[in-house]
Amino acid sequence: MQENNVNPAEIDKFSALASKWWDPDSEFKPLHEINPLRLQWIEEQVGGNLTGLRIVDIGCGGGILAESMAKKGAQVSGIDLAQKSLTVAKLHGLESGIKVDYQCISAEDFAAQHAGEFDVVTCMEMLEHVPNPASIIHACYQLVKPGGYVIFSTINRNPKSYALAIVAAEYIMNMVPKGTHHYEGFLKPSEVMRAARQSGLYLQELKGLEYNPLRKVYFLSNDTSVNYMLSTRK
């Protein structure tokens, strides 16, 4: 069983907040606010329609993105190593009536069991929380069918991202809990793309995700200096 590529402190951190995943005014408020943007961009990347596609969401947490993709007609699996978050995801699925197959398993183990089975793999806001991001990226490559799509989102590593994603978001604006992010875990787009290419994934599009503190809205842009999304194909 491959669970070496996990930081127990990160699992504990999200487990402690598990009951709040679906509260749009909780610490997960930013995820709820960016989810429509993420979902729309994912749809655009895969041709405009998720209906009938087999998708696995790696690091699915409480299922916010996984449920929204299933609601669009996709056949979705969600995997995570935080059991409490998965329990919340399953309970919310019972309430919403939206079916997602949730499993507590590492990306590497899941890839060994389901190689080449998925049309789309999503891995959002997760790479910055694991010791070996390249191992996750390779698992994504293994999971997706030839011609399929792998979509990542994470945080760039530079002084601006430290100032905005940690100092401003955690300590000044209290948008996310203190300690949510660690600067050394941030990844430059070039680093993600290098690991993707080494696995056999090729860049399709790179997009920035920004926040306007005056209007209190998120929006997509070409500025990838802080938050960014990256789509690739096998």
Automatic annotation (TrEMBL):
Gene3D superfamilies: Vaccinia Virus protein VP39. S-adenosyl-L-methionine binds at residues 38, 59, 80, 124. It is an enzyme of class 2 (transferase). One of its GO terms (molecular function) is 2-polyprenyl-6-hydroxyphenol methylase activity. Pfam families: Methyltransf_23. Pathway: Cofactor biosynthesis; ubiquinone biosynthesis. It catalyses: a 3-demethylubiquinol + S-adenosyl-L-methionine = a ubiquinol + S-adenosyl-L-homocysteine + H(+); a 3-(all-trans-polyprenyl)benzene-1,2-diol + S-adenosyl-L-methionine = a 2-methoxy-6-(all-trans-polyprenyl)phenol + S-adenosyl-L-homocysteine + H(+). Keywords: Methyltransferase, S-adenosyl-L-methionine, Transferase, Ubiquinone, Ubiquinone biosynthesis. Its EC number is 2.1.1.222, 2.1.1.64. GO terms for biological process: methylation. Belongs to the methyltransferase superfamily. UbiG/COQ3 family. PANTHER family: METHYLTRANSFERASE, UBIQUINONE BIOSYNTHESIS O-METHYLTRANSFERASE, MITOCHONDRIAL. O-methyltransferase that catalyzes the 2 O-methylation steps in the ubiquinone biosynthetic pathway. HAMAP family: UbiG. This is Ubiquinone biosynthesis O-methyltransferase. The gene is ubiG.
